[in-house]
Every structure is written in C-alpha cells, then in structure tokens.
Amino acid sequence: MTYEQIKLFLPSASSRVNDEIRCRVEAPLFAGIVERLMKEGGLPLSSLYATDDRATDKSFGIHVILSLDEERLWMTLSTSVSGNDPTYPSLTRSVMAAHWYERYAQDMFGIVPEGHPDPRRLVHHENIPVGTHPLRKDFRWDTKLDHAQVPYPLHHVEGEGIYEIPVGPIHAGIIEPGHFRFNVAGERIITLEGKLFFTHKGVEKLLEGKTPLEALPFIERLSGDMAASHALAFCQAIEKISETVVPPRAKAIRTALCELERITMHLHDLANITGMGTGYTLMAANGFRIKERLVRLSQTLLGNRFWRGAIVPGGVSRDWTSGECALIKTTATEAVKEMQDLVKMALQSDGLRERLETTGILTREAAVAYGAVGLPARASGVARDVRLSHPYAAYAQLPWEIVTAEEGDVYARYRCRVEELEISLRVLLAAVDLHAGEPVVTRVSLKDGWGVAAVESWRGEILTAVHLKNGKIERCFPRDPSFCNWPLFGEIGPGNIVPDFPLCNKSLNLSYSGTDM
C-alpha cells in the first residue's frame, strides 16, 4: 500500500514530517485500522509504545509505528485512552506481532488491551505488587515496593510420558539470566516458553528529565554488544527532532563504527554457534581469539572494548588519524580473512553440518507473523534491512546488498553471517576514508517534539522513539531487536531435541539486557 493509497483510505494521514507520516485514530477504530494497513497494505509493525499524557489531556497515548519500506517512510498511528479507565481493543487478536508490546504497556502503564489472547504479566515477576505501573509519571523512580506473591502461570502439557524441564534463570555458562520451560516427550520438545526481565533496570524511567547528552551513556549500555548501534539510533532521533544536518565525514565514521561492531559480533557468533553450540571446540578456541583482535582495536581507538563513546548528537566525538584508519583496515581485513578460512575448514565436517541443517527451523510465515527482524528474519526469506528501506549515515553511498536464505534453520542463519561478514568488510573499507579531513560534528539546537529513527544493528532493527520537552526527555522507547525475536523460541524449539536448544539459542544470539530495559 502506497502513501497515496493510505491517504484515500485514511484522510487524517496527510500530516507528514520529514520521513514520518503521523495520524490520530479513535481508540475503538485503532485495532481495525492497524490490522488493515498490515494485512492488506503489507506494512510491517516496527514498534508499539505508550505515553502518559494525563498532565495535558487526562489520557494515555498508544503509538504504533509501521514501515512503508518501498517509499522509505515511517507511519505512526496514535490514539488516546482514558486516564481513569485505560482500555482499548487489543491488536494482538489479529496482529500477532503486537503481543509482547501490549503486555509491556499493560505492565508499565496499566493500559489494558481488552481481548488479548495472553494477558499475563511480561515485565513484572511474582514479587511485584498488583497495580504497579512504573512508567506512569506519578511513579517515582526510587519507589520502594512491598514484596508480593502474585501467581505467574506457565503453560503445561499433560499426557502419558510428558514431563517438564526448567532451565535457568541461572545458567551453566557466563550469560545473562532467563528462565525457559520445556514440555517434553522423551527428548523431543513439545512446547518451549521463556520468562525474561530478570535484569530489568528501569532505563526508560531513568531517562525521563535528562538531556540527550545525559541520556546517551544509558542508551549505550542498554546492550553492551550494541553500544554503537543504539547510540546511533538515539542520536538520529534527536537530530531529526532538532533538524540537525550531520556532516558527511561524521556519517562515514558512524557507518564504519556500526560495521566494526557488526564484524566483531559476527566473528563471535560464527565461533560460538559451531564451537560452543556443537562442541566443535576448534572453532571456539580460534574464533574467540580472532574476535579479540577487534575488541582490542576498539580499546585502542575509543578506550573501551565495546565501540562505545564515539557517536554523539550532531556527529562523532573525534576524527580518526590516517594511522588509525590504516590500522582499522588492516585489522578488520586480516580478522575476516582468518575467520573465512576457519569456517571453510569447519564446514567440511559432515557431523557439524548435520547438527546445523534442519535444526531450529523458523518458517517465513512465522517470521512475518511474529514481526521478526534482522538476520533471523532474513535467513527465513524476509528481505528487510533498514539500511536499504530507510537509509541513514553513509549507506546510500556505499556498495552493499541484503543477504537472505530460504531454509530458516541454524545453518541458514550461519551462512548469512558468513556472507554478511564479507559485505561488512567491504562497506567498512569504503567508509573509513570517506570525506576524510572534513568536520565531524555540528551544534545541535534542541526543540520540542518527537521523532523516530532506526538502525540495522548486527542483531537486527533498532527503532528508537524520543519525545523532547524543554530540552529534556519526556519519553524514550529504544526498542531492541531482541524484544521482537525472543518470542520466536516458541516456534523454533518444538520438534527439536532438547540438546539442540543451546544451538538454536546461539543461532539467534538475543540480548537479555536489551530486552529487559
């Protein structure tokens, strides 16, 4: 569905700010309009978030962000619900991709999606008292809560020979906490359900009232392995609101930083999936050594190991010297070449290929229905990448293409990483010297307003919505790609054997911290 067709169907959609279409809809019509735009118009759901607007109009706001990929536009549909009785017809009844978003808003704001097929808590665990809604403006960030015991029913399957396996939240590896509940017949998984938010940090609440510069360190630490990507999405939203034009050299360095981050983590995943996921330890021993070269490069350039601290509102903190540019190109090229040789050797193992192929299949239909993003979606035939559909930084000037596969299994996700590694290196080498010697930052004059910006991180699409008032953050929702992809385990787990769950998990490599904001 094109923008012109949308205006005929929805005349209120005529309001456009830069690359954003903005439209207000009455609450009773909200779900039906979103459903039609998604199902008939083919527009994917990129985000859904709430705002507490009771101070201005005694209501809560609900905002749905859809993507018009072919026209490179975002569409935000907003509605208001009563501040005294915040309810609305659930979108999830017809739009599966909305299910976690609506449960999140229910926990954090107390906005009830009537008719939601799974109205259980999402963020709140059993110890959080009923009626606790931390993102309401009248809830203080330092509130001391009583310890409650609210039941949280997990799904059960009954039958002869069926049993449950609880895994986590504390795991055998050095990873973040999450609980997984398997219903199993023999070794075969029947159902798989996850329970997260053990590391909920209250970042959205802490961002309220902060200036963009004060907020940036929080944004960079949402998920430690995506610091550059999250920083870029946040800064681009600020720059969109303030109508700031970022210098071309800064755009080139931002592109290079995000591709360095992508290369770093693809090296990690290629080692981790085959090395730790299957026991092919040669890949782990050598792959993590190769990744360490990129991590130390970050330490040399930025003073930390996480590609953090370079991207700022208006550009980047500093330019690179010619010597640093040469070091970047040499280090990345050598690391990618060494990993390519290692992968080529590993995939000659029939036993390894057998573990990867047909394991953890995500069908294209399921990927679309759940609103999957990033590499897991592309490995299932969904050719979406915001670097193409909503170009940012210097991507429109550089040579690259989308990598996809059709099989949707662990092996497809592995192959996509291998191919993306080579493409990322190509983009990096072209970006490092682009517009060298030109300015790298410009002044940002903050304005009241709101805007959205997206970045295709190595994990998938980040979409950050920011509302500014008097130079400070009124609301910020930095949606991590893992928030969209965690529900996929309910699809890729069943039918596999229990020992393949770690392999499925590593092939997605989702962030607990980025989801648990």
UniProtKB/TrEMBL annotation:
One of its GO terms (molecular function) is oxidoreductase activity, acting on NAD(P)H. Residues 36-142 form the NADH:ubiquinone oxidoreductase 30kDa subunit domain. InterPro entries: ComplexI_49kDa-like (IPR052197), NADH_Q_OxRdtase_suD (IPR001135), NADH_quin_OxRdtase_su_C/D-like (IPR037232), NADH_UbQ_OxRdtase_30kDa_su (IPR001268), NiFe-Hase_large (IPR029014). PANTHER family: FORMATE HYDROGENLYASE SUBUNIT 5-RELATED (PTHR43485:SF1), HYDROGENASE-4 COMPONENT G (PTHR43485). It comes from the Bacteria. Keywords: NAD, Oxidoreductase. The keyword Nucleotide-binding does not apply. The keyword Manganese does not apply. This is NADH dehydrogenase subunit E. It holds the Pfam family Complex1_30kDa. Residues 282-442 form the NADH-quinone oxidoreductase subunit D domain.
